[in-house]
Amino acid sequence: MVCLCTPWTYAEEQPRSLENSLIEFDALFDTPINFWGKVIDDNGQPIAGVNAKFYLLDKPVWSEDGSNTSKFNVISDENGNFELLNKKGASLSVIAKAKGYAPAYDEAGNKISRADVDYSNPAAISYSRIPTKDKPYVLILRKKGELADLKEIKPQKFDIPRDGSVKEVLLKGAPLIFNVRCWSSAPEPFTRDFYSWRADVRVVEGKLRPVIDEHSVIAPKEGYLEAIKIDMPESKAKGWRYSSPQGLSEFWVKLDNGTYARLRINIITGHQHAVMLSGLLNLDGNNSFEK
After folding, report:
1. Residue 150 and residue 136: Cα distance in Å, rounded?
2. Is 183's pLDDT higher than 50?
3. What is the pLDDT of residue 174?
4. pLDDT score of 278 more than 90
5. Under 8 Å CB-to-CB from 81, ≥6 apart: which residues?
6. Beta carbons within 8 Å of 152's beta carbon, 6+ residues apart
7. What was the pLDDT predicted at 17?
8. Can you give the residue ranges of every domain in the chain?
9. CA-based Rg of the chain, rounded to a whole angstrom?
10. 136 φ/ψ angles, rounded to the nearest 5 degrees
């Protein structure tokens, strides 16, 4: 009987040498890179004079300080177009910035005023959306409105009871008064075991509303609540409250006199029981938080 199978060779079964692996790795940084981009505003209009800053990963070394990355600045033309051509590297990132504009975000919260493109990985080419001259990578900036007169409310911490008693909290330097109550079954002495707790936060002469879009600069005028109630059973360790000992989120505040604020309210339980507040107060008497 004659066997027509492909002859087996020892070399075919051998793993690649370290030297060959390093040669292939170095070759990734020799990938040709040409990038075409276009910058538009959130109304679809091209923006001229935008600074497109490129970070080109072009050196096959590991670095914490960015020394393995070359930087380039390109300015968009009257049609919003810009390009970086005839370079070599593994990947690049480009960030668009312009005076009077802010980064834009899509519905998923991804920043769409920047691009990250992997040129060296064939499997990532379609995902990275490598641009061409006919189909440039479109970056979007949000045109800013009139800047608001905002006062920073620096972090302030207040001890609160753990038995549900009302704690009145008066923020320093801001016309904001809160009534906070907390019920906690945190063990004494404290251990790292999960435990249940709940809290009730109210604004005196005002209402609260959770911030849904963290990138929003306009406070809603409707939909505010008399109180924010937090309920953390010991079985629930995730969600917007990251762990059992803490409750953390951002809230819009609307006072009865028409004043708006945006605050981060952090209920702390565990070794201690406290509330920490910080944020911004609008001094213009409107609901804009443009900065």
Report:
1. 38
2. yes
3. 93
4. yes
5. 36, 37, 38, 46, 136
6. 279, 280
7. 56
8. 17-143, 150-282
9. 27
10. -70, 160
Mean pLDDT of 175-184: 96
Confidence tier at 25 by pLDDT (50, 70, 90): low
Q: Say which amino acid occupies 204.
A: V
Q: What is the model's pLDDT at position 67?
A: 81
Whole-number percent of the chain with pLDDT over 70: 84
CATH (one of 3.10.20.310, 1.20.1630.10, 2.60.130.10, 2.40.160.20) for 17-143:
2.60.130.10
pLDDT tier at 55 (50, 70, 90 boundaries)?
Answer: very high
The CA distance from 22 to 182, in Å, is 59
The whole-angstrom separation of Cα 288 and Cα 217 is: 6
Answer yes or no: is pLDDT of 221 > 70.
Answer: yes
Mean pLDDT of the chain: 87
Which strand ranges, in their side-by-side order, compose the sheet holding 227-232? 167-170, 177-184, 197-203, 227-232
Cα distance between residue 116 and residue 132, in whole Å: 15
Any alpha helices (H) in the chain, and if so which ranges? Answer: 18-28, 125-128
**At a CB cut-off of 8 Å and minimum separation 6, what does 96 contact?**
37, 39, 50, 51, 52, 76, 113, 114, 139, 141
Q: Give the Cα separation of 73 and 75 in Å (integer).
A: 7
* CA torsion angle 41 45 46 49 (round to 10): -60
Please give the sequence-ordered ranges of beta strands (E in DSSP) within the chain, or none if there are none.
31-41, 51-57, 69-75, 81-89, 91-97, 101-103, 114-118, 137-143, 150-159, 167-170, 177-184, 197-203, 206-210, 227-232, 246-255, 260-268, 274-282
Instruction: Quote the CA–CA distance of 114 and 143 in Å, as a whole number.
Output: 16
Give the mean model confidence (pLDDT) for residues 86-110. 94
Reading the block at residue 207, the tokens are: 């209402």
User: Rounded to an integer, what distance in angstroms lies between the CA atom of residue 161 and that of residue 172?
Assistant: 20
